[in-house]
Amino acid sequence: MSGTSQATIGARSDTTGRVPPPSRLPSLTGLRFVAAVLVFATHVTWNTSLVEGPYGAGIRQAFSLSGAYGVGFFFLLSGFVLTWTARPDDPAPRFWRRRLVKIYPSHLVTFLAAGALLVAAARPVATVDWLSNLFLLHAWFPRLETSTSMNGVSWSLSCELFFYLCFPLLYRLLGQIRESRLWVAVGVVVALIVGAALTARFLVSDQPRLEIFFLDGSYSFTQVWFVYFFPPVRALEFVLGILLARVVLAGRWPALGLLPAAGVAVAGYVAALYLPYLFGTGGVASMWTAPLIASAAVADWERRRSPLRGPVAVRLGELSFAFYLVHLMVVMIGGQVIGLDRRFPPLVGFALILVLLAVSLALSWLLYRCVEDPLVRRFSRPSTDTNGRVSGSARRWWVPGSAASDRRAARR
């Protein structure tokens, strides 16, 4: 194969004169928390009515799609980071084990918590909802009650699990694309993403109409599910992230600074608010975040100034997965305690929102420290033989001679 070999996808050619790509991208870690807060903003403004008057209506409209935008960012980011840190000789079972340890224990804890809350509230849950959610299969069901069952945000983990299962094969296949044709491949994936939205709009039945959140009966849930929940369609964003990482590693990303890239992401979100729903959410909207991901990676690689690289931003980013899993339950319980129909003056309402944010952060820290971090450290380490030596296949994955590298890679 000309252009690039499978063995050099994760490494930059020495002829470029630049330093090798860093193993960690702290700016992207910082961005993870920004995306998680965008998801929180949608849920807290649409599941409660804490701020009265035009201020409340304004923030509800402003953040109506921020949750979808944040989730799409995570899908792109997953493909990007996994490709950035991948090793072609890493066995697929070990990769799957690391990813499962990363997401499933925290999912199980929040699944049990959500189940306990539903039982306490005497809310009936169908057996298919319990089982499909437990095994992260619920996003495959074109049924609102199933796709959003239990802990409502966990549907995205169903998509992520599908991405992880496909990644070893995708990594090999997409690794065969010549560097000179990477942008063509990006264009093909973008066309497929737009095509998915067009398919949902014109080929998927719009009956029965769905009236929920801000959809005002314009679409059926099947249309929304196809664009927003269906794992193979959302996998297009994951693939776009893989290709984006290859573009950056190949030195073919244009010189776009972090601030202009952030401007593109903000402008894309504003545009999404005025587009038809199927084109303002899912993959079509997620594409606007691609320049920000690539530019943040380049900023870390070239050690440019980045406000997302600070220790507080990185720590919050490390908590983002746990925060994502716990925040909706906090919002729902907080709304019940405060009163779903109660409205407050802006200052009081915003203060209550900050309280819910703080409680979510505290619980996410607890979930991260007690479940996610220790299990990742324990089960993502390279295997050793009976004499305590790292096995040959494991040595090929880990950066040799560095315990710190082992710990960093274990968190990926």
From TrEMBL:
InterPro entries assigned to the protein according to its UniProt record, in alphabetical order: Acyl_transf_3_dom, Acyltransferase_3
Signal peptide: none
Start and end residues of each Acyltransferase domain: 27-368
Keyword terms: Acyltransferase, Membrane, Transferase, Transmembrane, Transmembrane helix
Region annotation (Disordered) ranges: 1-23
Compositional bias per record (Polar residues), positions renumbered to this chain: 1-16
Transmembrane region(s): 28-46, 66-86, 107-132, 152-170, 182-204, 224-249, 256-277, 283-301, 346-368
GO molecular function list: acyltransferase activity
Classification via Pfam families: Acyl_transf_3 (PF01757)
Protein name: Acyltransferase family protein
Native source species: Micromonospora echinofusca
Organismal lineage: Bacteria, Bacillati, Actinomycetota, Actinomycetes, Micromonosporales
